[in-house]
Amino acid sequence: MARKIFLPIGDGTEIMDTMYPVFRLQEEGYEVVIAGPEARYYHGVMHEVPPDLNIPWDITREQPAYHVRATVAFRDVKPDDYFAAFFSGGRAPEYLRYDQHLLSITRHFFESGKPVAMLCHGVEIPAAAGCLRGRKGTTVPKCALDITQFGGEYLNQDVVVDGNLVSARGWHQNAPFLREFCKLLRSVS
Questions:
Q1: How far apart are CA 157 and CA 46, in angstroms?
Q2: Domain span including residue 60
Q3: 3-class SS letters over 55-84
Q4: Which residues are known to be catalytic?
Q5: Start-end of H helices in 124-189
Q6: Number of domains in the chain
Q7: What is the CATH number of the domain that holds 125?
Q8: What is the pLDDT of residues 27-44, one digit of tens each?
Q9: Span 123-145, mean pLDDT?
C-alpha cells in the first residue's frame, strides 16, 4: 500500500506547482491525495512573467490552465492517515488559509514532525496555521513576509531544508525541490 501525501488545492491553484509534484511523488510510489474545500474539480492557473519586455509586469500574469480534481473535502480528511503534506502555490492559498479544517490538518503535520513541503504561495497556509515560528524557509520574495511576520526566518535561496520542512521559491525550482523532498521522504519511510 502506497503511503499517502496530503495536497490541498482550490480554485487558482498553480498548475506547475501542483501537477509536477503529483506526478513526481507518484513515480516514487507515494499516493498523492488531492483535497479541497469540497470534493470537486478546481480551476488551475498558470503564472508567468511574460517575456515581452516592451510592456513589463511588476507581478506574474495569471491565465487559465488545466482543471484538477480534489477527491476529498478538508472536513473529511483524517490527518493520521497521511505520511506527509505538500502545499503548492498559486492564488488558492490566499483564501484556503482561512479554512479552519485545513489549518487544523496543517498543524497536525508540523506537530507530528511529518515531512512537509511548501512551494511559492503554499507558504501562506502553514503561516496562517502558526507553524513557521522558529523555522527557516524560502518562497517567492513577495511572500517572504508570510515567513517573517509569523516568527520564521526567510532565506533568499532557491530551496531550503529545515528538519522536516522543505521549501522552494516556485515551480522553476521543481527539480531540486522535489529531489530534496523525496530524499526526506525516503529517510523517514
A1: 23
A2: 4-188
A3: CCCCCCEEEEEEEEECCEEHHHCCHHHCCE
A4: 121
A5: 124-128, 144-148, 174-188
A6: 1
A7: 3.40.50.880
A8: 999 999 999 999 999 999
A9: 97
